Amino acid sequence: MKHYKKILSCLVSGVLFFSMSSSFSSSVDASTGTRYYRRHDCSSSNPASYYPYSLYFSSSLTSSELPRTIIGNNDMVRDYDTSVVRLSCGGTGFIVDEHTIATAAHCVYSSNAFLDIDISIIDTDNSVIDTIEPTYIHVPSAYISPPQGQSSSYYDYALISVEENLHDYGMFQLAVARDNYIANSGSVVVSGFPQSYPSGYSNADWGIRFKASGTLNSSYSSNNYRLWYTADTAGGDSGGPVYVQEGVSANNTLYEYKSVIGIHTNGTYEGGSYNSGVRITDDILKFYYENNYII
Question: Hey, which of 48, 67, 203, 276 has its CA 20 to 30 A from 106?
């Protein structure tokens, strides 16, 4: 995996952005010192086979699968971002590096085995540009066997590596949302391939990319593992990016940034008021950007 030394470190509305950084700085840390992972070689005929490894991250910072939910009216609209990809399991992923796709762990692992999946790159007209087979799939060991007193949903994130170069399809940067951004009900967008569409679209053919916007809920997003938000989602959106979209003006030019602060996984919390996902932390940044076991 390539390591990019150039750091994009502009703070916008309480979100610290990163661009393939080799060093991280934020105010959120969910680290317990070491996290353990399982890497599955997709060429293996044994779906339960894996190679165990660990990633250690030292920091001195200061600071069960449920149905997805339409909250009120269905506010999803078409999304044309080719860096949001479709998984054959009926889930979503998104490109974060030339050879790396992020998704939810439950989209690639179930019943004590890694799933046999492929990845479809979908054009803006909903046609399949390319279908790609993964090389390796990585999931946290804590997702499979959570530490005592913790939920597997805290670790519902995964990494898919591929041989093909994904550069031409675009990619998201990962970011860490500062606590004050969540506390002030910051806005987010969730994108994916839902199996239930807004009015005017047929649900007969799964595979159309949609997105919806909403606000973060600080009451339930106060821990370092999960985010809760009002953005509409539906089954199939799991593994999709939860991102902040910001415009930054410099030298009379407006630059648009889409920075992922979470990975969508669940819905129907508090009577269907919020959907939820894994919160991006320092440990997760290291997992995707500073992982020597990618290939």
Answer: 203
